[in-house]
Design a protein that fits this description.
The protein has 161 residues and is of the alpha+beta class. It has 4 helices and 7 strands, in the order E-H-H-E-E-E-H-E-H-E-E. It is 29% helix and 37% strand. Bound molecules: coenzyme A.
Amino acid sequence: MEIRDATDADWPAIYPFFSAIVEAGETYAFPLGLTSDEAKGWWMESAPGRTVVAVADGVVWGSAKMGPNRPGRGAHIGTGSFMVDPAAQGRGVGRALAGEVIEWSRAAGFAGIQFNAVVETNRGAVHLWRSLGFEVLATVPEAFDSAAHGRVGLHVMYKKL
Ligand SMILES: CC(C)(COP(=O)(O)OP(=O)(O)OC[C@H]1O[C@@H](n2cnc3c(N)ncnc32)[C@H](O)[C@@H]1OP(=O)(O)O)[C@@H](O)C(=O)NCCC(=O)NCCS
């Protein structure tokens, strides 16, 4: 599997799983019902941020975005977001994307990586981030309206680099 910078030409492959994941209502608080053009603005980063894709056999199976969590005097802490096509989840794509985000963030000089809103019932993601050295700093109670579980907490997770 190759992880490389995403281009505009990759977006038609990303949008279907972006949309499926957001509309499923379990992991992300992006606006609902985004058109392809609208969603592209939320996902495709430009410098100083970056969006990558994970590609195998010519197929885009996942994507991640990364960059400063805050501008200006908060810009030394990075952040990241991850989406793997539901058809390919559980096969190591997410772990590979996370490794890329950590290594890129370290090389770019970020002091740490903050995940702002990890849904507490998203057990796969919480397990993956913990295994990579992220800790839960706090949980904002009932901050996410899960389609299946109702209002659940959002973890702020952090890894020092
Ligand atoms: C979370 C996500 C990025 C993980 O990517 P993935 O390719 O499915 O995960 P991987 O195959 O790399 O698995 C990594 C680890 O997480 C575990 N895992 C993944 N999904 C899981 C699930 N649903 N339940 C339990 N564990 C899970 C795997 O067992 C694996 O652990 P291990 O290496 O100790 O065996 C992906 O499932 C996804 O895009 N989910 C929807 C969007 C989302 O939740 N994004 C993250 C928001 S914080």
